[in-house]
Amino acid sequence: MTVYDKATIEELYRGTLPWPQLKQMMSAFKDVERFDTFLAVLQEQVPWDDQVLLPLGPKLFIVLKDDGSIVTKSMSGHEFGDYRENWKLKARIAVRDTDEKMQEIYPRWMHADPAWMELREYYDPLDGSLLEVEAVPPGYPIVHSFEPYLEGFYTEWLGREFPPKRA
Q1: What CA–CA distance (Å, rounded) separates 138 from 54?
Q2: Is the dihedral of CA 24, 25, 28, 31 positive or negative?
Q3: How far is residue 62's CA from residue 60's CA, in Å, rounded to a whole number?
Q4: Which residues is 53 bridged to in the sheet?
Q5: % helix / strand / coil in the chain, to the nearest 5?
């Protein structure tokens, strides 16, 4: 089993890892240290000190704060609240629900019919970064995409205490 160093994991995170190496990495068993290495890389990328517990996306994280609370937090530092709540309800939302709005990103006749589907774009309230997009029928409730069982992940999968102590 190959153990990847921090520089390789940083390239993976930045999207600059050469395809042959990426393909080999995807095809092989994951080394035990990779999650910790990835968290260390993420921790260096964020401009705040809260401990990253799990990434939700390139600019969205579940973090452990100094007061012991666990929240969803963006790269910019915006806190969306308890990680078990739907963070999207506290994001800025843009809805593409007309032909004109769809044609801003799709060529004419290449987008969905707005009567059947709308695109919801969720943005960071502080820096305007796009955090997630969902395609749903008009009027469909905001989707709570992911609520991880963090305690089970850390204790049962990783074999560690939860919440983890800062390294």
Answers
A1: 31
A2: positive
A3: 7
A4: none
A5: 30, 25, 50
- List, as one string, the DSSP characters of 39-87: HHHHHHHSSS-SEEEEEEETTEEEEE-TTS-EEEEETT--EEEETTS-G
What are 60's strand-pairing partners? 57, 74
User: Which strands form 130-136's sheet, in the order they lie side by side?
Assistant: 92-96, 118-123, 130-136
pTM: 0.90
Segment 126-165, tens digit of pLDDT = 999 999 999 999 999 999 999 999 999 999 999 999 988 8
Phi, psi of 30 (to 5 degrees): -80, 135
107 prior amide bond cis, ω within 30: no
Written as one string, the DSSP assignment of 10-48 is HHHHHT-S-HHHHHHHHHSPPPTTHHHHHHHHHHHHSSS
Strands of the sheet containing 70-74, edge to edge, are 51-57, 60-64, 70-74, 79-82
d(CA 2, CA 15): 20
